[in-house]
Specification:
This protein is of the alpha+beta class and 364 residues long. The chain folds into four domains: 5-12 and 81-175, 2-Layer Sandwich (Alpha-Beta Plaits), CATH 3.30.70.270; 15-78, MutS, DNA mismatch repair protein, domain I; 182-235, DNA polymerase, domain 1 (Orthogonal Bundle); 251-362, Dna Ligase, domain 1, CATH 3.30.1490.100. It contains 13 helices and 13 strands. It has helices at 13-21, 50-54, 63-69, 80-95, 124-142, 154-160, 177-181, 194-202, 208-213, 216-223, 225-235, 265-285, 318-335; strands at residues 5-10, 30-35, 43-48, 74-77, 104-108, 111-115, 146-151, 169-171, 251-262, 288-299, 304-315, 340-348, 351-352. The strands form three sheets. A five-stranded mixed β-sheet has the order 5-6-1-7-8. Strands 9, 10, 11, 12 and 13 form a five-stranded antiparallel β-sheet that branches. Helix 10 (216-223) crosses helix 11 and helix 12 (265-285) runs antiparallel to helix 13 (318-335). The longest helix is centred in the C-terminal third of the chain and has 21 residues, at 265-285. It is globular. The termini are far apart.
């Protein structure tokens, strides 16, 4: 049976989160930098929004070069812990659309594959509806946009998600794969980089269409059996690799904006209790336990703060998570004088559950 695979790619993820957190940034060039600590301009661009990209700024570029190109850009430091917390929330939304928990594959902090063959009844029109629902839920729950590709395999879905960026959706049905691939440059084929492109060009191959009709034996001679075979299949749109859970996807998180900027523990605890219930619901659904807890605090000065704790035993009980969260919130409020605007919680170091651990086991 033909599969139906969705690839979701969050739009300029880090910069989009910063725009969401501080709406005054919208309409401006926003550049998120990984600073090296050797000066204000040292380091490289991690990502930027589309306004900055139009001026030629791109990821990997030295920050000094980006500032020279567009000095009036807003340059911000990477807040990896915060972005990871947002990613956890988004990925749990996406996981809920997969045919099963094993048919979800997160491949980076802002990308994932979801197999919806059964849910869509193997119907690409129904898959389009599901894709639109995904986009709407992410926009509503996370305040972010994403680009979606839908295809008969991971290769085509991944390539399709790049067609209409940002905030687009593209469906490539099985009988459309050939026409979709033909006009594309070699580097548009997911998995082909500059080095491979140059070697192919020396063989007289400059398009995916030419690669698709090239002799497979010749490709194997030049690239070896494994890569040569893959190049031929990929150019024909063939990809049998399964969507499967990766070992590194071992955390469940949630974030929320408080009703108002506050230090009032009653209000903060109430919102945190809701997040805890949501996280524990996911923990139970996935039949896992957790060994560590991280609380994220976003203060009114837009700074990100985190507190983490590793448990002596794996836990599944909501009371354990709730007590730890309240203790860390109380501790943070004693250390920092700012009001809170957002809070988040992450249960990590997940493992298959071997039975419920109660709060009593954590009490000295």
């Amino acid at each position: 049976m033909e599969r139906v695979i969705i690839h979701v790619d969050m739009d300029y993820f880090y910069a989009a989160i910063e725009e969401r957190e501080n709406p005054s940034l919208r309409g401006k060039a926003v550049v998120v930098c990984m600073y090296s600590g050797r000066g204000e301009t040292s380091g490289s661009v991690s990502t930027c929004n589309y306004i900055a990209r139009k001026d030629g700024i791109h990821s990997g570029m030295p920050c000094s070069r980006a500032k020279a190109i567009k000095p009036d850009s807003i340059f911000l430091p990477v807040r990896k812990e915060f972005y990871s917390s947002v990613s956890d929330s988004v990925m749990e939304i996406l996981r809920g659309y997969a045919d099963s928990s094993e048919l979800f594959e997160q491949i980076s902090i802002d990308e994932a594959f979801i197999d919806i063959t059964r849910t869509s009844l193997n119907d690409f029109e129904q898959a389009l509806i599901i894709g639109m629902q995904m986009k709407a839920e992410i926009r509503e729950q996370a305040g972010l946009t994403c680009s979606v590709g839908i295809g008969p395999n991971k290769l085509i879905a991944k390539m399709a998600s790049s067609v209409r960026k940002p905030d687009g959706i593209t469906v490539i049905k099985p009988d459309e794969v050939g026409n979709f691939l033909k006009p594309l440059k070699l580097t548009k084929l997911w998995g082909i980089g500059k080095v491979t492109e140059e070697r192919l060009q020396k063989m007289g191959i400059s398009t995916i269409e030419q690669l698709a009709v090239h002799d497979a034996v010749d490709l194997i001679t030049v690239f070896g059996k494994s890569k040569g075979t893959w190049l031929k299949k990929a150019a024909l749109g063939i990809d049998d690799s399964p969507v499967k859970e990766r070992g590194g996807s071992d955390q469940i998180g949630r974030m929320a904006t408080l009703p108002q900027n506050t230090r009032d523990t009653d209000m903060i605890f109430l919102e945190m209790d809701r997040l805890v219930d949501d996280v524990i619901g996911k923990v139970n659904t996935r039949k896992v336990s957790y060994r560590s807890v991280t609380i994220t605090f976003i203060t009114t000065d837009f700074r990100t703060h985190t507190k983490s704790r590793t448990l002596n035993h794996p836990a599944t009980d909501s009371s354990v998570l709730r007590q730890i969260a309240r203790e860390m919130i109380t501790g943070f409020l004693k250390e920092d004088t700012h009001n809170l605007r957002r809070i988040g919680i992450r249960a990590a170091n997940l493992q298959k559950s071997e039975g419920q651990t109660s709060l009593l086991e954590f009490v000295d």
